[in-house]
Specification:
Blueprint lengths: L19 H8 L3 H6 L7 E3 L2 E3 L2 H10 L5
Antiparallel strand pairs: 1-2
């Protein structure tokens, strides 16, 4: 996860959160697969929507290389 600086003079270096559609496209899996694996992918729930931190997705991909 990205840590935020407390220095207000520096711009935030935050990557945009990914949607279910974007994660499915990156992993070349179905949206249903992404929903079923949302806990291990560390999904964030924003209202009724799921979002994913790109850094968390990269870490998951590194841990699971060759298993998909």
């Amino acid at each position: 996860m990205t840590t935020l600086s407390t220095d207000v003079t520096q711009p935030l270096a935050v990557e945009p959160l990914l949607t279910v559609d974007e994660v499915a496209a990156v992993l070349r899996m179905s949206k249903d697969w992404v929903y079923r694996h949302r806990r291990e992918l560390k999904a964030l729930k924003l209202g009724r929507e799921l979002r994913f931190e790109p850094a968390d997705l990269r870490a998951w991909m590194s841990r699971n290389a060759g298993r998909l």
